[in-house]
């Protein structure tokens, strides 16, 4: 059964965040709040956890497009090719925020992202995922709990989320009601921003 942890954005309890970190380090899956929709996350370097995440989304891991959740831009060079100054300035002016930025991937990606040519980078404007990444010491892999082709009421209510994913994840972080609009996906691989999906973030 999933453990429900009530963690409040204005004053996240350190002991509960530490419990989340321990779960991630042990290969567990979590559901966490963001500035858009509640999302599924796991340790980006744990291949078994990544496989569980893919299985949960009913896709093959090699076909997955899981975003990488960072708490700032300091991890960019770990996953992406060198980017132009203008692109970096654009990124800096839009994070944290409700955006997923597609960038050219480098060859040092974690095993689960092997052979990916591009990677989606996200820095949510929400203290809890930022704190999780900071305490974990590296980004997490992430995917929305919402399916693009469905309008689902449960996706905003952490209690209903916990009910649906009770035997599928290890921890559900209850941080109050979430949003029901996904992030805006912006492709930056050409050097100029191209909106792939309009979501909550406005450019």
Automatic annotation (TrEMBL):
Gene3D superfamilies noted in UniProt: DHBP synthase (3.90.870.10)
Name the UniProt key words of this record, in alphabetical order.
Nucleotidyltransferase, Transferase
Query: EC?
Result: 2.7.7.87
GO terms for molecular function, please?
double-stranded RNA binding; L-threonylcarbamoyladenylate synthase
Which Pfam families does this chain map to?
Sua5_yciO_yrdC
Q: Which organism is it from?
A: Chryseobacterium fistulae
Q: What is this protein called?
A: Threonylcarbamoyl-AMP synthase
Record-linked PROSITE patterns: YRDC (PS51163)
Q: Record's InterPro entries?
A: DHBP_synth_RibB-like_a/b_dom, Sua5-like_dom, SUA5_domain
Gene that encodes it: ywlC
All copies of domain YrdC-like, residue ranges: 14-201
